[in-house]
Amino acid sequence: MPLADASVLVSAAGPVRVEAASTLRLDAGAVDYALVALYFVFVLGIGVLARQRVSSSIDFFLSGRSLPAWVTGLAFISANLGAVEIMGMSANGAEYGFPTFHYFWIGAVPAMLFLGVVMMPFYYGSKVRSVPEFMRRRFGTGAHLVNALSFAVAQVLIAGVNLYLLGSIVNVLLGWPLWVSVIVAAVIVLSYITLGGLSAAIYNEVLQFFVIVAALLPLTLVGLHRVGGWDGLRDKVTASPGGAAQLESWPGNALSGFANDFLSILGIVFGLGFVLSFGYWTTNFVEVQRALATHSISAARRTPIIGAYPKMFIPLIVVIPGMISAVLVPQMIEYKQAVTANPDYTGDVTYNQALLYLMKDTLPNGLLGIGIAGLLAAFMAGMAANISAFNTVFSFDLWQQYVVKDRPDGYYLSVGRLATVGATVAAIFTAFIAGNFSNIMDYLQTLFSFFNAPLFATFILGMFWKRMTPTAGWLGLVCGTVSAIVIFVLHEAEVFELSGQGASFIAAGAAFVVDIVVSVAVTQVTTPKPAAELVGLVYSETPKEVRTDPEESSLPWYQRPVLLAGIALVLVIGLNLLVG
């Protein structure tokens, strides 16, 4: 099917057929278009206002390290509320039901708390400007170059996914050709990032968080009312294909692809909950950058912890609407019955459109405009986060480190703005690459297993084992990444077969284990860095006063990171037990 005539949205449901643009059109009225236009005015206005605060490279790339924790905490979570979170998880909800909660309560919150309590003191206390820069200080230029290059490539690819989906929504809304929609969407994001840098991205992400919630909460409530309340939803889900298993989160066999209950739980807990989750949340500069923009170590630690609280409840307004759509919208009901009877079935409707069809069927004019603005906000937040992280790593970690050194600060500020333009143009092309994949969520999870899983292994070993050597750092990264690629190739060659996210879980686990084994082995035959060079980088060599905020003991209880993290951990454990 020609790309210009089709759109592909996110699903973890296995191969899906692209949908003809003419199949689905949202019946927006004048008030809806007005609300969307008003949203774009606010977005661009924030970029113009943020421009006034940019006078140095630190202002542009890290907001001058001056933002309050509540702002960066909301931006932290909003930056992740992109294509996968909104469309992908609603699609998973339509297909799998409650097991999708694992992406939040197992695959996100514990790692976010670990980042705030354990790892942020090292990131912030060492005064690094990026995660790759931390790698350079700990392991030298070998690991640094591997990490910086792989991160830069991954961000352009992932930005392309968000941009493609953003263009697809504009295509559905306005009927513009997809390539026009993609370019218009790219220009809007480019405008405010180029103007105001990270501050523009972060303040827009705060706005986008509230717009997303304002869009999805009414959709959930109206949908529940239409389906007969919570009891009505349970009854209809139980009677639908997939049955009552969709109302139980464990063992999640359909999600993991494992028929054996024990292997399914192991795959979810180790593959998703440990390797993929910790690899993403603790080493992904897209997220860490928001915490580095704060004014103190304590605020930096609170950033991901504050973000963990709304993260726990996001599935209630993302997964639940997907489940409602699967039992309320006639097109979704027919599709689920057909694909359950024949997994190879293809049609104009897929799980990918669950949220759009629910919006079309349940939201009146006005609320529909807010819903559309919420989807646009989600995709823009995701893309802007990728671009703002890319321009920092490109400017500081690649250009300044390896190409042009020792120039005035204003030079690197200009490089950052040009890198923003270059990354956006590249994302336009990678958007159409993403459009050629039948399953974009599998595409993203594959990228995470390639890049994030081995990086987490190197980080965690290097942070707590001072003996680990620079050579082990870059060799472990390379071998871990290669092992994940080998697993991917074997799966694509059908040497083994798993549905759902099972292959990504295995690839991530293999990358983590291989990285650890190689790093330990290479360390035995190479020379470590002197202990004096590891202060602020390795736990045992870093004095407590370097990794703590001296004013933290005087803070009120609701601003103490460890206590806040403890409360969040109890809540997420309670949610896991409650849903079961």
Overview of the molecule:
The chain is an all-alpha fold and 580 residues long. The chain is 72% helix and 1% strand. It has 22 helices and two strands. A two-stranded antiparallel sheet has the order 1-2. Helix 12 packs across helix 21 and helix 13 packs across helix 14. The radius of gyration is 23 Å and the shape is globular.
Structural class: mainly alpha
Question: Strand percentage, roughly?
Answer: under 5%
Main sheet specs = 2 strands, antiparallel
Major beta sheet, strand line-up: 1-2
Record field, number of beta strands: 2
Radius of gyration: 23 Å
C-alpha geometry: globular
Low-confidence blocks of residues? 1-22
What is the H/E string?
Answer: EEHHHHHHHHHHHHHHHHHHHHHH
Helical percentage:
over 70%
Q: How far apart are the termini?
A: 42 Å
Q: Which whole number gives the mean pLDDT?
A: 81
Tally of helical runs: 22
Keywords: Membrane, Transmembrane, Transmembrane helix
Pfam families: SSF
Main location: membrane
Organism: Nocardia bovistercoris
